[in-house]
Amino acid sequence: xxxxxxxxxxxxxxxxxxxxxxxxxxxxxxxxxxxxxxxxxxxxxxxxxxxxxxxxxxxxxxxxxxxxxxxxxxxxxxxxxxxxxxxxxxxxxxxxxxxxxxxxxxxxxxxxxxxxxxxxxxxxxxxxxxxxxxxxxxxxxxxxxxxxxxxxxxxxxxxxxxxxxxxx
Length: 168
Known about the structure:
By secondary structure, this protein is an alpha/beta fold. It has helices at 5-20, 36-39, 58-69, 102-109, 124-129, 131-151, and strands at residues 49-53, 73-78, 93-96, 114-117, 156-159.
C-alpha cells in the first residue's frame, strides 16, 4: 500500500457501500476487530454501470480501478486538462469531453446507474487568479451534469471533493 492509499481506500469503501451495498474487505492489524459488515460483502445489485467524471485524474483513476475490480461497468468522462490517459485501466471506456458538454453527457450517461463526480479543479492559488475558470468548471459544468442525470434517469451521484475546500 502506498502512503496515500489508506485514505483513498476508506473513501472508496464508503462510496462502494453506498452504491452497491457491498464492500471489499480491508486488511487490518490483528489487534483490531473488523466488523462483520466490512468482512462480508452483500450486493443489492450485482453490477452497477458507473460514470466517473475526472476518471483520468488521481482519485478518479483509483476509483475507476476499484470499480472495475469489483466487476462493475465503468465509463470515464475526462477532458484530460489535468488528467492523464495513461492513468486509466484499459477496461474503462473513456470519453474525452468536458463535464459541461450536454451531448457527451447524454451519450455516456445512457444506461448508467450512478455517477461519481471527481472532475473539479482543485488548485487554490489558480482559483484566485482565474476565478471564472473555476466557476465554470466547478459550478456551471456540474449543473449541466445534474441536468443530464435527470434527463437520463440516473438517480445516484457521489460528489467528490478535495481537502483544498478546507484550506490546506
